[in-house]
Amino acid sequence: MEIRRVLNIFLVFAVVVCLIHPASAGAKADSDETEYFAIFMEGKKVGHTIQSRVVSDGKVTSSEEITITVSRMGVSMTVEIKRTSSETTAGEPLGFEVEQKLGAMVMKIAGQVDKQGTVNMTTALMGAEQRSTSQWPQGAVMDEGLRLLTLRKGLEEESLYFAKIFEPTMQHALHAQIRIGPKQSIDLLGRVVVATKVTTTFNMPGSGEVVSTSYVDDDFRLLKDITPIAGIQVEMIACAKEFALGRNDVVELIDKMFLASPEPLNDLGAAKSITYYLAPTGDVPDLTIPSSDNQKVQQFKDGRVILTVKPVAAPAGGKFPYEGPDEAVLEATKPTRFLQSDHEQIIDLARRAVGDSKDAAEAARKIEAFVAEYIENRTLSVGYASAAEVAASKQGDCSEFAVLTAAMCRAVGIPAQVVVGVAYVSNFAGHQGFGGHAWTQAYVGGKWIGLDAAFRGAGRGGYDAGHIALAVGDGEPGDFFNLAATLGQFKIEKVAISRK
Q1: pTM
Q2: I need a surface site. Which of 389, 423, 447, 500 has the fewest CB within 10 A?
Q3: Cα 26–Cα 16–Cα 57 angle in degrees, nearest 5
Q4: What domains can be seen in the chain, in order of their start residue?
Q5: Three-class secondary structure of residue 480 per DSSP
């Protein structure tokens, strides 16, 4: 059974860890500095972070290198992110560079910000470059701008301020609330020191919140950070270079990545709908669960949610390519950096799959069936690949099935998006319940219908009421933000199944 579980959560953590340390560069404005941190998950060292800041010729260059290695059912996976920002000494943005290594996939992003606030960006993936322009988010800062804001606000207990932080990896400006707490004694790998507590809450519209607790010294240097991601306790602790870069432990996290079901869900193909009764596991969180054609959400003040998943039947007679007026739907027909629907091989595969079909529903189902058979090597060794990479390699797990399906739909003019959430499995490596998953939805005859080539290829039949969507997008890694923010924050107390 193909289930995505942990990689993209770690990617999101790696992105967030770049943001949660507004004071980590220290207060000195005229020196070059490098600091080292060990990263722990579930109490075991799994990687490291190297942060540096260099001031030269009126420019501040801040760099962050993050490496995390985990095991997925015995398959080792390493995520590496290198991020550099360039700003004036006043904190004004000049440019940025990001290099992501997610297993076999390597992506590079470079951007320059001109005096008019125009961002000229280049994304390199699989040897191909995509160029784009956008406007710098008003009021957004990067590393130096955030450092200066932190110094101005100080460390007075109970003070509260807000920041808008541009993250090039996600191509978003994230809103952050920063609250200064009391001084506390903390343990730094056996060394006890007194530090100031800083709580940072990150919010991305439509994707919920991630809350981190940091501890800084009187010079604003980061000493320790604790961030719960998908129910996993992640810590970053300042340490000597030798320890940070030293040997890592092997952490197998499959047990943490499953959401228990109150009862077995048998014969899901015969389920007309399933109503899930969700309850928060701790303090009342703001669960961000979207409503759509396939699922309806009722949210209550106490944090409980009633979610009904009722898969939409694909209407017959729909035409493609889509030529309607809906701007949001039209956007779902365009190529993106992970859904390269204008790629020659993807266009060829889509035409082969669709054949002479004229009906949009039939064409979408043919693409789903084609991808289910096309990906031959169902492996967890792929980190996160784009549609073009999947078309070339024919390997991956659920997210690779999802991006290729979506890109092929777009290639023939059928609007499509990648959906991220959890899906029920009766037995995956001895686990029964809901695991992190990705699938596709296509716009057919005025409705978004679910497609799941990974499940179809595994003999399950495809999309069904055992899927709970948490986010929808263009297959960007940032779309997994809500999965990371939500998983582990709620439990399923009861299910009610309506049979056909």
Answers
A1: 0.82
A2: 500
A3: 40
A4: 7-253 (no CATH), 268-499 (3.10.620.30)
A5: helix
